[in-house]
Amino acid sequence: MVNNIKSIKSPLNFAIKYLSYKPRTIHEMQKYIKKKGFSEDIIEKVIATLLEKNYLNDKDFARLFIESKVRNKPKSKFALQYELKKKGISPSIIDAILEQYNDQALALKAVTPKIKMWKNLDDEKFKKKMMNYLRYRGFNYDIFISTLNHFIESKD
What we know:
single chain, Arc Repressor Mutant, subunit A, mainly alpha, 3 domains
């Protein structure tokens, strides 16, 4: 066991330093350690050690990632799902976490701070701004229409 720990000490130190900047997924960590030139066997041992010490946890990562995005820059469930898939999170974890979110509420949250800037625009420019803003964040046309209607009704 002592010999086993010595053999992974250097890559483990790389991994811990990499984690010190921000949380990472298992996939990101595997890519990072592999890029450093370590063998698959060493990578597996390092990942197992990090999981054992709870330094890596894809479920917690996904939850924190989504909470942060929803709080700071809301995007559609589709866009959040895409970003998490790119980070190597399993679809079952993504679906379980995104289940509690609603695209309509996310769209309203995303657009609300921008409404003050757009309030003096004519209706066509207002629609265009909102549509482009929501589309850029991954929302579909139906969500755009219902969000637009929400703000038009509250305007009257």
